[in-house]
Amino acid sequence: MIRPIATTRSASGTPTGRLAVWWLIASEVVIFGGLLAAYLMHRLGHPEWASHAANTNTWIGAFNTLVLLTSSLSAVLAHQAAERGNGVRAANLLLWTTFGGLIFVLVKSYEWFTEISHGMTITANGFWAFYYTAAGLHALHVIAGMVIMIIISMAARKGRDLQRVEYIGIYWHFVDLIWIFLFPLLYIAK
Amino acid sequence: MSEHTEDSHYVKIWGILCVLLVVSVVGPFVGEATGIQVITLITAFGIAFVKAYIVAKNFMHLNVEKRIVHFFLATVLMFVVLFFSATAPDVMKQEGSNWVKTYDFPSLQASCCDDNDAADCRLAGLQVESTDHHRTAIRCVQCVGRPAYPADPEACHGAGHGEDAGHGEGSGQGEDAAH
What's this model's pTM, rounded to 2 decimal places? Predict the structure, then answer.
């Protein structure tokens, strides 16, 4: 099979694929960083938002944090398995990571359903607008990561493109990292 | 490093992250119970930075990554800080050396009247000191027409309104003002 030249050269000393993932993450830092910075300044400027933030469920947020941290563990273990050339183990661990993402999304869906049914919608006020925008954008990244992981795990099971296991792992850890900041901002600060 | 040792290293990192998660959840409860706000800040936000550092270093392997990646990340983080510092004063402050923000006052005043929120009253430029009856009467004027407040501005200056409205920032203040 003819490989694209971008996958075979490395001008920076970093494999091009990995460099591309870091480039993607750098752009994501601006997206999420801008959103969180905007939230932070509005939150500090509107002390009354604390009464709205009091309605978020800290325990659900904490559980979802645990789920993402655990899925990050399986992602890094998948990377280690890929480094050793064990594609089957890497694929299985990636599927476990995907399962973690699925639990996260299901719990999030339940949480949103409860909040929306109690009138806490995206148009209710500024806090809920930021809450749904930030958590929703993050959830979209979780879903995208799950789809990519399933695709990569299918190839990895056949021993193909094992370097991609590391790439999706870096992305998944970044998604975890964003949640690490969303959790105190949306659930703990009341 | 053997296969087992490598994996157990990552499990250990995960264990540390879980412990930090517990601290970040319990800490704010302790901060609230003791009234020491710094505990909440450190355990909620300080630990978030520690967790992020651990994930970036150990799971993303940023510590062994090429310098160009660090350059990427430092550059974009600088832009985020620039964005925040350039726009935050306009959002967070009501007035500056040569400007006054008026567009947000109505929402703050509404929150002040409806939720009886003293912090909003101050942000909206209304005085809530319990000892200054004249200024609390002004606050009553700002809230005229809202539930539990008089429909007529003059009524705020009637007997007892300024004094009643000035009796603290607790619940029932609006009702007092309407009597």
Answer: 0.79
